[in-house]
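In this supplementary section we document a worked example of the pipeline. Step one takes a protein sequence of length 170 as its only input; no multiple sequence alignment statistics are reported here. Step two produces a three-dimensional model, which step three serialises into structure tokens for compact storage. The input and output of this example are shown verbatim.
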Amino acid sequence: MNIDELYLESEADIKNSMYVDAFRKCESILYEDPRHAPAHNSLGWLFKTQFDDYERAENHFVTAIKSDPLYPHPYFHYATFLTDLERYDDLDRHLQKCMTVVTLEKSWIYGKQAIRQELQMNIPAAIRQYELAILCCVNDDKIKTYQEDIDRCKMKMDILNREEEEKESN
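The serialised model returned by step three reads:
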């Protein structure tokens, strides 16, 4: 069996929640090809989601990106990783780098920036990033989702404004 077939099997194992088998297959792949970006990405995902081993997960995501800078998947997972750990400065640097990668959809990058702003309660900046995501997007379903994100942010802004008014009146 060649490395590509083994990798596809490991992905099927992940989809079927057979994480130990997927893990072993990815490790076998990396034994044969230490720079196999998809296997590093999958191991990063496994370490993050199944083992809560964030150091090893990050190492695999970073290695996947270095091994194949045009392979898009580790950029996605690493952005989520940084968001989950509230490492927003690192996330900003990562997303700036993502803007230079031709294989990454720019609307996704703006959407990730919007999520970061929203989580930090910088709602006007989040809305602006979601608007930029819409402008870069050509998928109607994704545009609808970004519009829903904007609507959610507007609701949050109304809540924050009411809280501010209550503070001022007291």
